[in-house]
Structure formats: structure tokens, C-alpha cells
Design goal:
Length: 99
């Protein structure tokens, strides 16, 4: 078996291992948030924070910024946007009647 195919298989197996507990998470879109305005604001804040993080890393670490800037942007975006996911999971502050 060529080395590329082994690497693809190993990468796929690694992703399956890392995500085995998150299979149901994809069924919880942020569009189901009871507070659409809040979800939009959190999303915009996450985008802004991700861009700021990438710019900061690019300014501080010139030679390895090409590698670390996207990583920093991804980590910051997912961290900030998970606030809305956590709020939806807790009930999102909606009234007991669903309004």
C-alpha cells in the first residue's frame, strides 16, 4: 500500500477517535437558538476576535505566523462561538412555554 493511502487511513482513524463523542452535536445548529439576535451578535464577536487573534499572532511571530495565525483564529472563533452553543444547551433563557 502506498504511503499516502496509509496516511489518509491514519488521519481518518484519528479524526474518528477524536470525534466519537460528538456525533450528536452536529444535530444542534445555532439556527435553533431561541435568541436569534444574541446568536448573531455572538457570531460577529467570534469572527472579530478570530481576526484580531490572527493579526496579533502575525505581528508578534513573523516567521511562523503562516502556521500559527490560522490556528489562533480557529481556536478563538470556536471558543467564543461555543458560548452560544452552551446557552442553547442550557435552554437559552427561553420561557417554559417556549417563547
Amino acid at each position: 500500500m502506498p504511503i499516502q493511502l496509509r496516511n489518509v487511513g491514519a488521519a481518518y482513524s484519528g479524526l474518528k477517535l477524536l470525534t466519537w463523542e460528538t456525533e450528536g452535536e452536529a444535530e444542534k445548529p445555532l439556527a435553533e437558538s431561541p435568541r436569534q439576535l444574541r446568536a448573531g451578535i455572538v457570531h460577529l464577536a467570534a469572527i472579530g476576535a478570530a481576526i484580531a487573534a490572527a493579526l496579533l499572532v502575525a505581528k508578534l511571530l513573523g516567521s511562523v505566523a503562516w502556521l500559527l495565525s490560522p490556528l489562533a483564529a480557529t481556536v478563538v472563533y470556536l471558543s467564543v462561538s461555543s458560548v452560544e452553543v452552551a446557552a442553547v444547551d442550557r435552554g437559552g433563557g427561553a420561557s417554559p412555554t417556549g417563547g
